[in-house]
Specification:
Elements (H helix, E strand, L loop, with lengths): L1 E7 L7 E9 L2 E7 H4 L7 E3 L3 E5 L1 E6 L16 H13 L3 H17 L2 E8 L14 E8 L8 H13 L6 E7 L7 H13 L4 E5 L3 H9 L3 H8 L12 H7 L7 E5 L5 H8 L8 E4 L1 H7 L6 H6 L4 E3 L12 H11 L5 H6 L3 H6 L17 E5 L7 H7 L6 E4 L2 E2 L2
Parallel strand pairs: 1-4, 1-5, 6-7, 7-8, 8-9, 10-11, 11-12, 12-13
Antiparallel strand pairs: 1-2, 2-3, 5-14, 14-15, 15-16
Helix pairs in contact: 4-5
């Protein structure tokens, strides 16, 4: 088929007025002006009218398990207090609650134009009971060894069992040691080992809060005391930042997708600056969650100047109010008005595709890419189309996923 639209925003070059996209199966085969593509594809032409067509959005970090917890926890006085509160809520929920939350999260993400989502799955035992994923999904198996250390065989066997539970075309897998305060360096190293056996992305939360920084840098603070009370070994605390702790121990490397990186010191930036650009880790910023916890200003410009690949994501509805990626970009633009609209859109298309090592397939409209597309009404000029996309606040009216129109 050929899709015709008033404007096609490819994220792989300048926008195309009166553009068209040829699709065969689940892949894009050609992109250009409609008269050109009429010769390239003999299939039917589907005219989307006065719409802008763009790649489906990628929400690289979310916790769908908590999609029913919107407004359940008031903004906390401390990050540790929030951790204690959500743990208490989790104990009151059962499998049916989590299954309903995952379904609700998928539906909301789809409504706002997300075609690919990275979900940290805290309850892998739910996987066999889930229906086919309605979006292209990376299921990140959450790994925690806060109270005890696991053997290599346990970790690899558990992860592989998790992956074998699903075999559908839209499902992909990864590993997520939760954070340096809940996962040992050994567990990170085992995740690296497992990923080397079965190629997959790796992600973790790091440097999220000032309390995490105090725990690792100074061996003090509410998070330190809380975890010591849980009998977590605390001999890795004192003298290093959370990021330096993981990087210098070899727990993480440039393949990792690092969530948050809110509380970075000059030491961290010196460490990042010392690394060759091709070895830098990927970073994910969650503006809504960041605002909810009142974290220190996110150092977008400083990280970008070092060559860090930055994506934007929503995090969970336990710490933000919506799974709208465009809403997250508008929040980011308020605090960083110097960011251009096209640059912002790259953080939910091209950049997360790169972090997932799927640049040829996702985040752009180009020959060979997967046919994951969305369209929304457009009345702007080509020059202003990126800005109009950012300002769109309604549910996305048209979506194609894996070559199939789904809305």
């Amino acid at each position: 088929m050929i899709l015709r639209s008033r404007i096609v925003v490819t994220m792989d070059g300048p926008p195309i007025e009166n553009g068209a996209v040829a699709i065969e199966g689940n892949r894009v085969t050609a992109v250009g002006f409609l008269p050109e593509l009429a010769w390239a594809d003999r299939g039917p032409v589907i005219d989307l009218g006065e719409m802008v067509l763009l790649p489906g959005l990628i929400n690289i970090h979310c916790h769908l398990d908590y999609s029913t917890l919107r407004h359940a926890i008031d903004p906390p006085r401390s990050f540790t207090g929030w951790v204690q509160r959500i743990n208490a809520i989790k104990r009151s929920l059962d499998d049916a609650d989590y299954l309903a939350a995952i379904a609700a999260g998928f539906a909301e993400a789809k409504r706002w134009g997300t075609t690919t989502i990275g979900n940290v799955e805290s309850f892998p035992e739910l996987m066999p009971r889930l229906p086919a994923s309605p979006l292209r999904t990376w299921w990140f198996y959450e790994m925690i060894d806060i109270r005890h250390r696991l053997t290599s065989e346990d970790v690899v066997a558990g992860a592989l069992a998790f992956f074998e539970q699903r075999g559908r075309s839209l499902d992909h897998y990864g590993l997520s040691p939760h954070a340096p305060y809940t996962a040992s360096v050994t567990l990170y190293q085992l995740a690296n080992e497992c990923a080397s056996r079965v190629t997959m992305p790796l992600t973790t939360h790091v440097a999220e809060s000032s309390e995490e920084l105090a725990m690792f840098g100074d061996a003090r603070g509410p998070l330190f005391e809380f975890l010591r009370g849980l009998q977590r070994p605390m001999n890795d605390c004192g003298g290093r930042t959370p990021f330096a702790h993981l990087w210098r121990s070899g727990a993480i490397n440039g393949d990792w997708i690092l969530i948050h990186m809110n509380e970075l010191t000059d030491e961290d930036f010196h460490l990042l600056a010392s690394l060759p650009r091709g070895t830098l880790p990927h970073v994910v910023h969650c503006p809504g969650s960041h605002r909810y916890f009142r974290h220190a200003p996110f150092q977008f410009g400083r990280l970008q100047d070092l060559g860090v690949n930055i994506s934007v994501a929503t995090d969970s509805l336990a710490s933000t109010v919506s799974l709208s990626l465009l809403g997250e970009l508008r929040a980011l633009q308020k605090t960083n008005p110097w960011l251009a609209p096209e640059q912002l859109l790259r953080t939910i298309t091209v950049n997360p595709a790169r972090a997932l090592k799927r640049s040829p397939d996702l985040g752009k409209i180009a020959p060979g890419a997967l046919a994951d597309l969305i369209a929304l009404p457009s009345s702007s000029s080509v020059r202003e189309v990126h800005e109009q996309i950012l300002s769109y606040t309604q549910p996305i009216p048209w979506m194609m996923l894996d070559g199939n129109v789904v809305s």
